[in-house]
Amino acid sequence: MCPIDYFTMIRSKNQTFDLRVHIVQYALKEGIRAAQRAFQTSRNTVRKWLRRFEKDGLPGLKEQSRAPRFCPHRTPKAQERLVLEQRARTPGFSARRLKREFGLKPSIGAIARILRQHGLTRRKKRKYQTKRDLRAIKAQYAALTHFQVDVKYLNDLPHYWPQMTRLGLPEYQYTTRCIKTGATFLAYGSEISLTYAQLTVRRLLEHLQTYGIDTREVVIQTDSGSEFDGQAMKKTDTGFTHTIEQIFGAHHRRICGNANANADVESFHAHEEPEFFNVETFRDPKDFWSKITTYQHYWNLARSNSYKADQTPLQILQKDNPRMPPEILLLAPIDLDTLAASQASQVGHDLPVAPVLLAAGGRRS
Q1: What confidence tens digit (pLDDT) does each residue in 174-203 have?
Q2: What is the pTM of this model?
Q3: Distance of alpha carbon 296 from alpha carbon 185, whole angstroms
Q4: 143: which DSSP letter?
Q5: Do the Cβ atoms of 215 and 249 come closer than 8 Å?
Q6: In whole angstroms, what is the distance from residue 237 CA to residue 324 CA?
């Protein structure tokens, strides 16, 4: 006759644990041999659960971990601490980039496991639909001919904002990114305006002409913001589009309702914020310009891009145009407030080429 009735087993939330409890109770009352026959198991099984019950009580009948007590290939504690230290310095870096940038000994999988165990990873958003992959199309462009321009608000960044207000640092970033290479050029100002957008694009196009690039082949893509003539009722002879098309012979293209159309420049913003603005602390404005220049040069010359086959912008440029000097990627971030003041002091309407001092990012007092 079965020592456990059907109703008792079916109502159990943990049938395995309850079965062991009944085996132990039956063995204590009837003996090990009787329990063996009643539950159709071996005497060793009955003895095992009886001994665990006598030693630990009911907790001893619960399932125990089967993980090995010693793992010979486990990451040493010193290496684990080094991974956590480097991640603390660069919280925006993934396991793959931590491995590549700092030469860490653990594998990418081990680094990812360490970050996950310490709660330092973010759950990826589920992709319900694969977006259109434009890599093949973008790869056909000539280097430094197709650019995306956008403005990033810096006055809503929690780590940067107190420093911005205390040191008088820029509030807005005018970002220009090459679609083919990923090379990025930065300009900063205290306002979002048509004048600052014109200064940004004019400085870029003059820089390209200096290195022999025909600006008639250049395409500048923006959204429909007012700083890019997006809300202008009619064309003027002083607007953003006029500067691009009439003065330099380039082409201005606006995106219309496609949120993914400016993905390249938005991708830079997504990486720049955790890698730079969320971690850097500045002593004074000069320190800000020094550090943002270093970060832009790092991005253009040394930082590989997994979206572009783990190549740096410099490597892509050299493959596409071996004769192009690498110095073309060294156009430093500039202070548009100072550049605008310099332009206002000139006679006439033509903007002067930005001097070296302005390229270094000196702010007016």
Answers
A1: 999 999 999 999 999 999 999 999 999 999
A2: 0.71
A3: 7
A4: T
A5: yes
A6: 33
